[in-house]
Specification:
Blueprint: H1 3-21, H2 36-39, H3 68-80, H4 82-103, E1 108-116, E2 128-139, H5 144-210, H6 216-250, H7 257-264, H8 281-286, H9 289-310, E3 315-327, E4 336-345, H10 353-419, H11 425-459
Helix pairs in contact: 3-5, 4-5, 5-6, 5-9, 5-11, 6-7, 6-11, 9-10, 10-11
Length: 479
């Protein structure tokens, strides 16, 4: 068959598709998610959070704490944390999914070849060679392929924002755990210092008892107080090891090195900046990668709903084959045959399976809408709560600093007066216990204040970078 005849057959076979080709401009539009303001009514201003204050660098907010170990641990976590590594792998998988979806726009082709020989009395003794190729292409009449590409692009965007959100959470967790470790170490030192004072008190009580100045009641009370303080030290040590091990896991290292660094570079609980400026609610939400990820997942599910709906409309395919065969390689291309076939199919009856898939896709998209709305409300809640908590923590620390100062002076006076025999041991016991409680409460409040700062910065969308990907963009993909 000549090449001219092949072209004629292909032209006649394609005639049924000429009218359908015009329908590509009438593809069903994909449904877009509502705007942020439509998803949840947003307040113009915060109800409890104080919006006025100093601007901080959200991309590196933890550096404002002034703790070198926090800076070091955050840098290691960003490079080595395994949750971040898993999120990055999911991002690469989403990139591959988008490339696969885009490939559906182009024809698919396959080639085949073979060699054979007849056997038997009448068989031709020569080898027979054959070559062939098949080509198939689906026309995107009602947007099935376009919607699939859009869904894959939304999945990629969601994966990118999810990876960024994992980083946001990990950075905040590392900073919080390091603050906790500093707090435990400080409380441990306070307990050791108190134990040393209580050793002195016990010794003084024993001397006074031996001298007949006090009864053995003072000795027993001193022993009880000392034993209770001594019992708290192992718990602090255990808690410090556990917290250091958590940090080790977060930064992708075996336990041990973090614990050694905490003791090699001791430092007080970090003090965060006060009076932080908070952007408007709508602006905060646009900086939250978890909210953006939920919106992207909704967009993908809406596109998949469109894909499910296209199953109710005609499907058009154009396929063709070309091949040749001969006895002997030298004559292989003398005769070439081929055909082109245009096919249009329409679903008539499938016992409701397609409608069920559409209903399932609609339910999934409704769930994604609810998840997006929930992420918005959660973000607003976190900002409001963390802002109030930071302000309350500041006031609490100020009060406890004064309480610690007064308790320290009272303890000094009480110890000197007990040694002089001016007060009984119960008074000394009370002032010593008050000092230990005030100092411990002050350290805990300072840690709560620093943690509240981290939570506020995290709630405001700090501590993440856009995941690296050439495909994280909003191009129209030639549609």
């Amino acid at each position: 068959m000549s090449a001219l005849n092949i072209r004629k057959k292909a032209a006649f076979a394609a005639l049924p598709l000429i009218g359908l080709a015009g329908l590509q401009g009438c593809a069903l539009p994909g449904q877009e998610p509502p705007r942020l303001e439509q998803a949840v009514p947003l307040p113009d201003r915060w109800s409890f959070a104080e919006a006025e204050g100093q601007q901080i660098a959200m991309a590196s907010y933890w550096q404002l704490l002034g703790d070198p170990l926090i800076d070091e641990f955050v840098a290691k976590a960003r490079a080595q944390n395994l949750d971040i590594a898993q999120a990055a792998a999911q991002l690469r998988a989403a990139e591959a999914g988008l490339r696969e979806a885009r490939g559906a726009r182009l024809p698919s082709a396959s080639a085949s070849g073979g060699v054979g020989r007849d056997v038997g009395d009448l068989a031709v003794e020569e080898f027979q060679f054959s070559l062939g190729a098949d080509v198939s292409w689906e026309m995107d009449l009602f947007g099935r392929i376009s919607s699939s590409i859009n869904a894959s692009r939304a999945d990629l965007e969601a994966a990118g924002f999810t990876a960024s959100d994992v980083e946001r959470v990990i950075v905040a967790t590392v900073a919080t755990q390091t603050i906790t470790a500093r707090s435990i170490a400080a409380q441990l030192e306070i307990a050791k210092a108190s134990l040393a004072n209580q050793d002195d008190n016990l010794q003084i009580a024993m001397w006074r008892n031996q001298a007949g100045l006090v009864s053995s009641l003072d000795v027993e009370q001193a022993r009880t107080q000392r034993a209770q303080t001594a019992a708290s030290i192992p718990q602090f040590e255990s808690d410090l090891v556990a917290t250091a091990n958590v940090i080790s896991t977060l930064i992708g290292e075996p336990p041990g090195e973090v614990y050694r660094k905490l003791f090699a570079a001791p430092q007080s609980v970090p003090t965060p900046p006060s009076g932080i400026a908070i952007a408007a609610p709508a602006d905060i939400l646009r900086m939250r990668p978890d909210v953006s990820a939920a919106e992207a997942r909704l967009a993908g599910d809406l596109e998949r709903l469109g894909v499910a709906r296209t199953q109710l409309y005609p499907l058009a395919r154009l396929s063709g084959t070309v091949g040749t065969s001969s006895f002997g390689i030298e004559n292989l291309f003398e005769i070439i045959t081929g055909n082109v076939f245009a096919n249009v199919s329409q679903l008539l009856f499938d016992a409701g399976r397609t409608r069920a898939r559409i209903d399932a896709s609609r339910a999934v998209s409704e769930g994604s809408l609810a998840a997006w709305q929930q992420s918005i409300l959660s973000a607003l809640e976190e900002v409001e709560t963390a802002s109030v908590d930071l302000e309350a923590s500041n006031r609490r620390v100020e009060a406890l600093i004064e309480a610690s100062d007064g308790a320290r002076n009272a303890a000094i006076l009480g110890r000197s007066q007990y040694q002089a025999g001016l007060i009984d041991f119960q008074v000394l016991l009370n002032v010593e216990s008050a000092l230990l409680g005030a100092q411990t409460s002050q350290i805990a409040a300072e840690a709560a204040r620093a943690t509240a700062f981290v939570r506020l910065a995290r709630a405001m969308g700090g501590g993440w970078r856009m995941a690296d990907s050439d495909n994280l963009q909003t191009g129209n993909d030639g549609q």
